[in-house]
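ENTRY TYPE: protein
WANTED: fold as tokens:
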Amino acid sequence: MNAGLGNFGVSTMQVVIPLVMTAGVFGGVPMILENTSGTLIGKIAAGTPTYLHNAGFIWVVILVPIVAAAWFGMNNIVDEHVSPDIGSTPSALGKIIGMLFIGLITASVGLWLMLPENAGGSGWNVSKWLVLPLVIAATVFALKMIPGAIRTSLDRQYKIFNNKHTWAMTIIYTMTFGSFIGYANAFPKLIDDVFGVIRVGEQAGQATGLESAGYIWIGAGVGALIRPLGGWLSDKVGGARVTQWDTVIMIASTVGAGYVVSLAMASPDPSQYFIVFLILFIVLFATTGIGNGSTFRMIGVIFQKDMRGPVLGWTSAVAAYGAYLIPKIFAGQIQAGTPQYALYGFAGYYVSCLALNWWFYARKNAEIEC
């Protein structure tokens, strides 16, 4: 329930941010659009004032009361056997900021390796497929160098990397949460580029039919709200079984969506395929949500109590890279005029996850039945 409602923030922001950008609710100087822009409340014509900075300020309005509620209403849950001595609240905040700063440094170096020279990068254009694992590995290694109680706690948590099931569940969980957050980011532009707002080979901003913005929040909303169902079903019949059947549906809907996209890309009227595409993607989002719940349940069964938190944190962190990779892959394939290939590639990855889940957890006499 907690994670599902948290994920619902994706679709909430897809509605709220465009709305607050249309009015001067926080003051400031608006930018003037040079091209017509589609939004959730209709098209904003060129020349219309748009308060782009509101996209950031609206988060302040939401976060301030949450910070106050956390400060006055939450308690630290401390286990004397596994929790490090982090000292007072200011001291703890300082340590957290320090660890975040380590992540900022490694990510900045990774960005520098990828960016061209005219954008402040190295100009080496190092592949993202090399940079991302290097950034992750460098961050994990650098955190391990922190002395004292934090190092002791991290040494204990890092034992998860010696367990093959950590890596198996990282791959499987990335299929669910990584796909959810990645599709949520890519879905709006995929609709626009395939179904008529901006078509490959046409002038940017040329409207040719369907306005997509009223639909972009639906998939993420369905995926978030249905997530508790995955956990509930897993409690009844087992997480591995739910994940197995969920992955089958996920593969079918992804292949189906790819086929519909190929038809739309070849059609002079792509909007005729939109409803089928939308239904398939809603099913796909639903499977990512159900799989989110079922894989969470699997981790709770597979790992001992003191390892569950670190494994959930690790798998979630790696899966979150889906927010970058999936839109990036779609962008490359859209540029090539073949976005369906991205979907077929994702389906192939899901097939490998299906096999992995079956071998370790879902088959008869599996190593761990969960």
